Amino acid sequence: MDGPEAGLQFWQGAAAGANVSGGATRVATPYSNWAGGEPNDSGGNEDAAYAIGGGSWNDYPTTTAVAAYIVEYGGVAGISANTSKTILIGTPGYI
User: Fold this and answer.
1) Residue 39: which of 66, 76, 9 has the closest Cα?
2) Opening angle at CA 81, ends 75 and 18, nearest 5
3) 3-class secondary structure, 44
């Protein structure tokens, strides 16, 4: 487990409505891989992160199309997720 669920924050600021000091800043965590000078909130609208060549990270506008992405999100505290699903397989009409 990493990210918010483990108490880790990778950057602060640069989220819509949250950028109070004019730019994003790195947050000290056990692991981060920001490219040099990143996150920088270039243009004031880089609210997402993505992996660039070599696996380093960059902040990026959410309106720009990318080939693929990863989203990490957590649930509500105190509510566990259902991690199993039962699927019945049989002859159509006979279960």
Assistant:
1) 9
2) 5
3) helix
Question: Which residue bears the tokens 């994003």?
Answer: 24
Instruction: Give me the domain span that covers residue 61.
Output: 1-95
Number of structural domains in the chain: 1
Task: Give per-residue pLDDT as tens, 38-82.
Answer: 888 888 888 788 888 788 888 888 888 877 666 666 666 666 666
Per-residue pLDDT at 88:
66
End-to-end CA distance of the chain: 38
Q: Is the backbone peptide bond immediately before 61 cis, with ω within 30 degrees of 0? A: no
Burial tier of 26 (Cβ tally within 10 Å: 0-12, 13-18, 19+): middle
Mean pLDDT of the chain: 68
DSSP codes joined into one string, 58-90: EEE-TTS--S---------TT------------
Question: Which pLDDT belongs to residue 14?
Answer: 47
